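In this supplementary section we document a worked example of the pipeline. Step one takes a protein sequence of length 93 as its only input; no multiple sequence alignment statistics are reported here. Step two produces a three-dimensional model, which step three serialises into structure tokens for compact storage. The input and output of this example are shown verbatim.
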Amino acid sequence: MSKIKVLVVFANPRNTNPLRLGTEDRAIQQAIRRSRYRDNIELTKCHATTIHDVRQSLLDETFQIVHISGHGINNGLILEDDLGSEKIIPQKA
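The serialised model returned by step three reads:
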């Protein structure tokens, strides 16, 4: 049986309210460890994620699940570019 590949993206751009991403990371890790399917899950994590990081991760591998922990607004996600500026990633992207 092939493993389920999961990408977890953690992003908390400057000038946004602080998120408890470390707590969420720990909760995800604990949930996987407690799961009877833990050996079937391959987890890839991206911390302090930029637009480039997400794009590169999705080009490098195929994931069945992408979990994003960060800020969003009605029309998309808020990530930083490589210069640290906030950018909105549209829902359709």
